Amino acid sequence: MTDEHGPGGCGPGEYGPDERSPDKHGRPDGRGPRGHSLYGPLEDPAADAGHREHPPRVGFFTDTSVCIGCKACEVACKEWNDVPEDGLDLLGMSFDNTGMLGASSWRHVAFVEQERPLGRQDAGLAGLPTGPSGTGQTAEVVADALRETPRGGGELGTGPVDLGFPSFDLPGAATGAEARTDFRWLMASDVCKHCTHAGCLDVCPTGALFRTEFGSVVVQPDICNGCGYCVSGCPYGVIDRRPGDGRAWKCTLCYDRLRGGLEPACAQACPTDSIQFGPLDELRERADRRLEHLHEAGVEEARLYGRDPGDGVGGDGAFFLLLDEPEVYGLPPDPVVPTRDLPSMWKYAGAAASALLAATAAVFVKSGGGGRR
Amino acid sequence: MSDDGLPREPRGDADAADVRADTSTSGRSHEGRDGRDGHDGHESRDGHRGETAAPAAGFRSYYGRPVLKPPVWKWQVPAYLFTGGLSAGAALLSAGADLTGRPALCRTGRLAGFGALLASTCLLIADLGRPERFHHMLRVAKPTSPMSVGTWILVAYGPGSGLAAAAELLPASWRAGRPGRLLHRAGRAGGLWAAAFAPGLASYTAVLLSQTAVPAWHEARRELPFLFTGSAAASGAGLGMLLAPVAEAAPARRLAAVGAAAELAAARLVERRPGLEARAYTRGRAHRLRRAADFLTLGGALAAVTVARRGRPAAAAAGLALLAGSALQRFGTFEAGVASTKDPAYVVVPQRARLDRLSERGPDR
Ligand code: SF4
Ligand code: SF4
């Protein structure tokens, strides 16, 4: 069986003269799909996708250690990109009422409240009559409520969820101050990672998702037919289908602004430069220096996430400096692009297909004394 | 990311103050999980939450929320997995019947195979967010996207299947004439053409599911193709037993047994995988669907090799059981994947374990 390739050659209706969207196929220089990199470090994803002359790869370095959680990025993104409302919810914990990235939330500021001091700081709240923080109890109440929603909370960032808030009782208020301890706040503005090996892009069957000349990953709304494959292809849970609209949406790295020589709206709006935009090489250097600096200052828990080109997605175009393990911010600790295993998956499928053919032949051959009847 | 030589803080739980960030393993649901960790009693006092939750020891998450987006696919997709497999199984069976002179079995397979193909197409289009743009699938052929590969397999398979069915629908009075004989020959060619693509149609759907970040599907990538082709064979054969006369259905009965054996064996292997992901298959709705599928398939296969040759009612019952078993198997597999995206444990625990293994080997520990 020729499982490995679609039997049809190249589909009709390529992009035509508009050179902005070369897919991972049908490229003018005639290199086949096997010439493409599916996994591992990749110097130049734009060139791998067929852009010959192109600007340097750009991205975000989000330094969460200086984020103040003002959500200017969320607002700027919605304004510039005309992203519709994603549900006016009170999620009942923290200051995060966006919840998650989604079809209608392309930046999401996470608020993590933890019962531990930040670096060597002393929050000084332990002595107050209220005691410091009851976040643990709050978090638990909310987590329980979220698990009961239809998509287990996965609808956050795309549509409304009802968790029963606002209410008159503070979640977790029943627990006394004596149960509370010291705490710290972590804030982080999450965004599409614009992966070097993007699971969403690899699986898109229409070519709606494409790699831009800047190395970013963008959906073309006029092409997407809402098949939903990308939603399951993304190892970070970023892209989603918008109910009512039916198409998939996510951060475009402000493709229109980049083409006009502007930086993305979120980076421009960020008052603390927590979101830094620029050529990826520069950002990586800057991040390394910042990490060193923080370690010297005693913030031992600082670490970079998505910076390493050797990781499971070949490094992120948008990477982060975090102050705790990634899963605490809702990020997968070690994401791997599903395409890594594509060749081996087709091998297993080929074996299963051959077995099916052989079995069918066998059940007929056996009848009638070893031949046709 | 992790292996860039950064000093890493000791795994959270050593400094106890930090454990609270882990909301999803504390409190009620924790008790609910610890009470039972076997594959048995899946009803507990905290309802479906307890039964779908992975019984993982401490792991950390963002307020217990999912890391991944649950699939947006609805029931149409598992239903398509079934009808697509059924169509493929029926096409193979009818081609064999055609070549070995079993006209009734051939007719059944061709008509049902084409009917299932039509249903498949409708289901696929219905699940799109923008159904009117279904033809956008045809604008590219993309080897990295199993959905694109599958689209082209369907495009190749469809005309053959249609031609074979058209030949069967020809009124008897026309058959004798020259056009009738021509169409008959074209039907045979179409049937064989479809049969050539049928194994691809039956197996690509496994890659379609595995080529995702959905933990339970991706982790089962080695077994799913065998599960799906086995299930396709069992359902195609079940259809043959249901609709064709007993005298001609001997190959269908044998194919049913072989397919069911493959399906059942692969289903066992899926849930025996060492990783946490395998547990998504043995809990909750997925578990119940798959159990029912196992019993139906096993019963259907046993009947196929014993009583089904004796009479039409027994054969029909066995065929129905195989069809239902195959359908439920697909729904069970689908459900397991969905459940594994809703609970962050399936994402965080295996990935964290992988990182810890790496850093143990690395120079910094
Ligand atoms: S795979 Fe996810 S994170 Fe990576 S580019 Fe696609 S949507 Fe963004
Ligand atoms: S939903 Fe749209 S962008 Fe996503 S894979 Fe399907 S066609 Fe591509």
UniProtKB/TrEMBL annotation, chain A:
| Chief location | other
Q: GO molecular function terms here?
A: 4 iron, 4 sulfur cluster binding; metal ion binding
Q: Name one GO cellular component term.
A: cell envelope
Is-annotated flag, keyword Disulfide bond?
Answer: no
Domain 4Fe-4S ferredoxin-type: residue ranges: 58-86, 183-214, 215-244
Q: Name one Pfam family in it.
A: Fer4_11
Compositional bias ranges of the Basic and acidic residues kind:
17-32
Keywords in UniProt for this one? Answer: 4Fe-4S, Iron, Iron-sulfur, Metal-binding, Repeat
Entry's localization field:
Cell envelope
This protein is called Ferredoxin
Ranges for the region named Disordered are: 1-55
In terms of InterPro entries, this protein maps to: 4Fe4S_Fe-S-bd, 4Fe4S_Fe_S_CS, FDH_Electron_Transfer_Unit
Q: Which superkingdom is the protein from?
A: Bacteria
From TrEMBL, chain B:
| Topology with respect to the bilayer | Multi-pass membrane protein
Record-linked Pfam families = NrfD (PF03916)
Query: Basic and acidic residues: which segments have biased composition?
Result: 1-21, 28-51
What transmembrane ranges does the database entry give? 79-99, 111-129, 149-170, 191-214, 226-247
Q: Where in the cell is it found?
A: Cell membrane
Q: What UniProt keywords are attached to this protein's entry?
A: Cell membrane, Membrane, Transmembrane, Transmembrane helix
Q: Where is the signal peptide?
A: none
GO cellular component, alphabetical, reads:
plasma membrane
Main localization (coarse): membrane
Q: Where is this region: Disordered?
A: 1-53
Family annotation (InterPro entries): Electron_transfer_protein, NrfD-like
- Please report which protein family the annotation says this sequence is part of: Belongs to the NrfD family.
Protein name per its UniProtKB record: Polysulfide reductase
